[in-house]
Amino acid sequence: MVTKHLIRLSKSNISKNEIQEVKNVLEIGFLGMGQKVKIFEERLTKFFSREAICFNSGTAAIHVALQACGIGKGDEVLVPSITYVATFQAISASGAKPVCCDINENNLHISLSDIKKKITSRTKAIVPVHIAGYSENLGEIYKFAKKKKLRVIEDAAHAFGSRYKKKLIGSFGDIACFSFDGIKNITTGEGGCLVTKDKKVIQNSKDIRLLGVKNDSIKRYSGHRSWIGDVEQQGWRYHMSDINAAIGIAQLKRFKNLSKKRKILCKSYDKKFKEIKKINFFKIDYKSVCPHIYIIKITNLKKRELFRKKLLNIGIQTGIHYFPNYKYKMFKVSNKNFPNTEKIYREIITLPLHPELNEKSIKYISDKVINLSKKSIFYK
């Protein structure tokens, strides 16, 4: 029996500021892509010191990024086994084949050694995933990609506000794609963005998101649309609305405080689990990283679903980030090629993390997890 007082795994954090911004849009009566999207993009561009353009999801941003780079049918894209299926679906939607790579055992990120095994003459890009909001081997990925003349499209859905070697993710490198769905580091309700210095990719992406109608973004920003124009490539209805952008504008103003709260909560988890041998957490420098989720690994855990059920029965919702993509029917390949994933996947659990939690919540969650981890029933 689940308790009435559920500590949710994740949760949107909305204030009166977001509500007022949306109310303003509703009162104006223009709900599509317009002035608010332009303002939000300008503020994101200032945030990253690189041009940013918005979409209706982070998945759409990755799909469009691939297409804008000329990647499609017959091409291959290297991607880690542990990521949300959206990453794989964005690649397959472009017509390219997602090539699943194993992960590093110590950080869940794509394995460079496995990349080297799986690259072929058809490989056109690597999509590293900044799971939990950080990346330890991004520099090595870029070095390898440059040598092999590959595009790098970062799935930075978890990493808004994080830094790599003191540089803001999205402010350097090739292309970075972010998600703004309801539970991300900042939200627009649903949405995402693409950030790059590649002007050709920017222009192509602006057209692709509006059904391929050339230069329609300029019209939309001013509340108009192109009734007469040209279409030169396949496009999609992927643009962001002013309602979503309005939420994002308010969230961006609050991001410093939202980020600070996430970091405090994760540090509290780390402190509680530090001396517990059975429970491992990923060593993250929260001076540089804005964490999206908090993952633990319980050594030799055999009955994870029972463990999660016990937590849920006492009011603690948990998650699993993520189901290995090579196990899905659509992307299925032999699990023999993923020894690290096979070892780690069975032992990982994601604990609640969102700005509405407090120190008392973290203590309650941590104490219950620690107590359960001592019971032999979960290791048989």
Describe the structure.
- The chain is of the alpha/beta class and 380 residues long.
- It folds into two domains: 16-249, Aspartate Aminotransferase, domain 2 (3-Layer(aba) Sandwich); 256-379, Aspartate Aminotransferase, domain 1.
- It is built from twelve helices and twelve strands.
- It has helices spanning 16-28, 35-48, 58-68, 85-93, 112-118, 138-148, 199-208, 216-221, 242-273, 304-313, 339-345, 359-373, and strands spanning 52-55, 76-80, 97-101, 123-126, 151-155, 163-164, 167-168, 175-179, 192-196, 279-281, 294-298, 348-351.
- Strand 2 (76-80), helix 4 and strand 3 form a beta-alpha-beta unit.
**CA radius of gyration:** 21 Å
Strand order of the largest sheet: 1-9-8-5-4-2-3
> Could you estimate the helical fraction of the residues in percent?
25-40%
CATH class category of the largest domain: Alpha Beta
Terminal Cα separation, in Å?
A: 24 Å
The shape is globular
CATH overall fold name of the largest domain: Aspartate Aminotransferase, domain 2
- Tell me the strand percentage band: 5-15%
Largest sheet: 7 strands, mixed
Tell me how many strands there are: 12
| Level-2 CATH architecture of the largest domain | 3-Layer(aba) Sandwich
Would you kindly provide a brief summary of this structure?
The protein has 380 residues and is α/β, with parallel strands linked by helices. It has helices at 16-28, 35-48, 58-68, 85-93, 112-118, 138-148, 199-208, 216-221, 242-273, 304-313, 339-345, 359-373; strands spanning 52-55, 76-80, 97-101, 123-126, 151-155, 163-164, 167-168, 175-179, 192-196, 279-281, 294-298, 348-351.
